[in-house]
Specification:
This protein is mainly alpha-helical and 94 residues long. The protein has a domain at 37-84. The chain has helices at 38-45, 50-67, 73-80; strands spanning 21-22, 27-28. Strand 1 (21-22) and strand 2 form a beta hairpin. The structure holds zinc ion.
């Protein structure tokens, strides 16, 4: 016979951590992938204005460049900005 209380055991302190970055490694606290990991990107893009998101990620990129060993600018761009979907390139109308 099952007691109803056994099925409503409170789980505390076992929540998985959010997909946020750990500095100075810039790894995800939840999954250990380079941040922003795919779940973090999905979370960040949820309802976000793309330009504001790009500006927010630019600030992270700036901090990451001081924390991480030197890499090519293209690598930082791909990791922090390319996926935001913001049209950052002003095109010449001609
Ligand atoms: Zn993650």
């Amino acid at each position: 016979m099952h007691d109803r209380l056994t099925r409503t055991v409170r789980v505390t302190g076992t929540e998985p951590p959010d997909h946020v970055c750990e500095r100075p490694s810039w790894s995800c606290r939840a999954c250990g992938q380079p941040w922003p990991c795919p779940p973090a990107r999905v979370s960040l893009m949820d309802g976000a204005d793309r330009v504001m998101l790009a500006m927010y990620m630019w600030a992270h990129l700036d901090r990451a460049m001081t924390d991480l060993p030197p890499r090519s600018p293209a690598e930082f761009y791909d990791r922090f900005l390319s996926w935001t979907g913001a049209d950052l390139v002003q095109r010449n109308p001609l």
